From TrEMBL:
GO terms for molecular function: transferase activity. PANTHER family: SERINE ACETYLTRANSFERASE. InterPro entries: Hexapep, Trimer_LpxA-like_sf. It holds the Pfam family Hexapep. This is O-acetyltransferase, LbetaH superfamily. It comes from Psychroflexus torquis (strain ATCC 700755 / CIP 106069 / ACAM 623).
Length: 144
């Protein structure tokens, strides 16, 4: 086992911190071929992307705070020709979107919603619901 001097260990530690800060401030998330939102904004909203591969977020999608979006998720509009003026989904706070889900069209998803893996959401979803399937259907709804 190789031993590091204190100076070398501190150097590696601070280099890692500086690189992390640089990445958070400079990396951008490309949404619909437009540079709309930085990863820093998602970080401040506490939106997390646990597996950030294959995620497509449309041009004017509104994401709430505390959302968690897994890999291969598409959130966008039905109108691909006029995407700048088309209606986009509005997603509430604390929404959990599992892998391979698709959320398309002029819909709104309430707060505290869980969208199951592979769900295709084409209609509004009320708050505190769990949806699964193709097309998505509500399987569980909490009443507070």
């Amino acid at each position: 086992m190789k031993r590091l001097s204190i100076g070398r260990a501190l150097y590696e530690f601070f280099t890692g911190i500086i690189l992390s800060i640089y990445c958070y401030r400079s990396i951008r998330v490309y949404l619909s071929n437009h540079l709309n939102i930085g990863i820093w904004k998602l970080y401040k909203q506490k939106t997390t992307l646990p597996h950030p591969v294959g995620i497509v977020i449309g041009y004017k999608v509104i994401l709430g705070k505390g959302c968690k979006i897994y890999h291969n998720v598409t959130i966008g509009t039905k109108d691909t020709k006029n995407f700048k003026n088309a209606p986009y989904p509005i997603i509430g706070d604390n929404v959990l979107i599992y892998p391979n889900s698709i959320i398309i069209g002029d819909i709104s998803i309430g707060d505290n919603v869980i969208i199951g893996a592979g769900a295709i959401v084409l209609n509004d979803i009320p708050s505190n619901s769990t949806v699964i399937g193709n097309p998505a259907r509500i399987v569980k709804r909490k009443t507070l």
